UniProtKB/TrEMBL annotation:
The lineage of its organism: Bacteria, Bacillati, Bacillota, Bacilli, Bacillales. SMART domains: NADH-G_4Fe-4S_3. It comes from Bacillus mycoides. One of its GO terms (molecular function) is 4 iron, 4 sulfur cluster binding. This is 4Fe-4S dicluster domain-containing protein. SUPFAM superfamilies: 2Fe-2S ferredoxin-like (SSF54292), 4Fe-4S ferredoxins (SSF54862), Formate dehydrogenase/DMSO reductase, domains 1-3 (SSF53706). Residues 142-169, 185-214 form the 4Fe-4S ferredoxin-type domain. Residues 4-80 form the 2Fe-2S ferredoxin-type domain. Its cofactor is [4Fe-4S] cluster; Mo-bis(molybdopterin guanine dinucleotide).
Amino acid sequence: MTEQTVRVTVDGKEFFVSGEKTILQLFNESNLEHPQICHVPEVDPIQTCDTCIVEVNGSLLRACSTKLEDGMHIERQSERAKEAQTEAMDRILENHLLYCTVCDNNNGNCKVHNTVHMMEIEEQKYPYEPKVSACEVDTSHPFYRYDPNQCIACGQCVEICQNLQVNETLSIDWSLDRPRVIWDNGVSINDSSCVSCGQCVTVCPCNALMEKTMLGEAGFMTGLKPDVLNPMIDFVKDVEPGYSSILAVSEVESAMRKTKINKTKTVCTFCGVGCSFEV
């Protein structure tokens, strides 16, 4: 069967696209930079972040789940689209403290940090609200830890665990005052049915899920002793969300970290598929 070709415009530029694709797939294949906090290519659209919203023929739609149709006029940067994207990102940051300069995950791969930078968000609109329930950091697993205080509840780790790895260990407890990811029925990670595949850590868009080997080793300041580092983190938490010039320091620090990072391509030995990835 011949694939149907549709004609659409994106910010006034014409595109001819074959096959059933979403608006976001077109953006990514065309190297059009666009916010997409909760997007994971390997699973169906999660539709939790709303940062990918665009204006299509006058309506605001999610780019991740909206299929391309002939004659669509798509605007990524219209006033309404940008307002919706910024509001969505502000709501995400309400659940996440920005202390990127002294964060272990400030290595160029943090999707939350990169999106804040891309969208030129200069101030955290809604004050961060600490989780009031089950907010203890879970360090029980030998390979990774979970910090619910930094979790934005995007659901990527849940989707990848349930629908790609098919382990069904992770879920989000929406009954809590501040929802968070739980393992099985709320047990510690090491007491759960987690098989240590690492998929959840890989897709996490921030520093909520992190490999333990990175903690204290990733940055120029993150390896400081806790009695020195913790006050620095508290200070940055207070000033970084409201001052773009302070946040810009983290960009410099991130660039400096890249000089320390060596990447090697290897093969995952978890199962017999033989997926290759970089470490």
